[in-house]
Every structure is written in structure tokens, then in C-alpha cells.
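Summary: Need help interpreting a holo structure output

Steps to reproduce:
1. Submit the protein chain below together with the SMILES for flavin mononucleotide.
2. Request a joint structure prediction with the ligand placed.
3. Inspect the C-alpha cell block that comes back.

Expected: a single structure record containing both the chain and the bound molecule.
Actual: see attached output.

Input attached:
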Amino acid sequence: MKVALIYMSRHGTTEKIIKHIAEQLTGEVQIFNLADETFPDIRNFGSIIIGGSIHYGSIQREIRQFCKRNMHELLERRVGLFVCCLLSTRDSDQFERAFPLVLKAHSKASAVFEGDLIYNKLNAIERLIFNPSKEEQDVIAINESAIKAFVSAFLNENAVASTPYIPLKS
Ligand SMILES: Cc1cc2nc3c(=O)[nH]c(=O)nc-3n(C[C@H](O)[C@H](O)[C@H](O)COP(=O)(O)O)c2cc1C
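--- attached output ---
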């Protein structure tokens, strides 16, 4: 199976998640950071995972554009979708708004992974807004089992859309 992992990450959490996902996939896996590249041609891939992070309520614009411009190809392929954000409870509609309805309905797996605020990477204004406690914020905790569950749903031939809300931290 040839898999494209397509992501954007502001401070590195989504990138870490993508790397963990890549480790659990067999076959040819290619990672594309939309911040570095033009949109990859996904016609060479049978499966696509798309992940971004939420800032001020929205996923990255490039992720939204990528989904929109490639919708036809995406709907003909196996798709997994996730977001990384702080508000990962069922009440949050950030995942719902991040991806088009038709793509969510088509996806084999979806997840909301709980992100983190990395104090050292926040600029002065962000520190004022979020006022994070320095000690608590500098570690990115990755929940391996949540990622495993996402990958396993993605690979499951019989899967219908999975429940998206999986906390990243255990
Ligand atoms: C400026 C800023 C705005 C953010 N806005 C939101 C938000 O609206 N909702 C949310 O759930 N998390 C929000 N977060 C938390 C990020 O989603 C979280 O830090 C995530 O781990 C970022 O992942 P990344 O490093 O891959 O970009 C925000 C973080 C920052 C720094």
C-alpha cells in the first residue's frame, strides 16, 4: 500500500503525530509538509492521511485548500483525517469544521488528538493570551495507543467512519 501523509504543524506536535503514524504503517510511506512543498500529486497514492492543528478555531488554510482542490481524487482513495488541538472534548466542533462534510463521511478513520502549548515556542502575544505555566507546557506527550487505534481503523477494510475524539495524552 502506498500511503501519503500530508500535514501542517506550527510548533511540531502534529509533525510528531505524523511520524508516529508513519512508523506504524508498512509499505511505501511518503510524508508531505504543506508548509515546505507545493501540493503533492496524490494520484500515485492509494491511501492518504491528512492532519493539521487548530489555531484560533481553525485548521491551517493550506489543509483546507488541499482538501478542496483534491476532493475528487480523495473520494476515490482510502482517507484518514485528524486534527491536533487543546480542546479535544466531544463538545468541540473544531474537527467538524476542519474538513468538508463529504470527506469526513468518506474517511475510514478520524481523530482529534490532544495537543499541547509549548511555552518556549510561543511569541510574546501568544504568551499573554494563553498564559501557560512554563513547567507544564514544555513536554509533548504522545499517546501511542490513541495513534495505534487511529491507524488500525484506517487500515481496517470493514471500517466505517470511526469516533474522532481520542485524547493524545493518557
Ligand atoms: C496561537 C495559538 C492558538 C491556538 N488556538 C487554539 C484553538 O483555537 N483551539 C484549540 O483547541 N487549540 C488551540 N491552540 C492549541 C494548539 O492546537 C496546540 O498547541 C497544538 O498542539 C498545536 O499543534 P502544532 O504544534 O502541530 O501546530 C492554539 C495554540 C496557539 C499557539
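--- end attachment ---

Reviewer comment: The CA atoms of residues 46 and 77 lie 6 Å apart. Residues 3-116+144-155 form a domain with the Rossmann fold fold (CATH 3.40.50.360).
Status: needs-info
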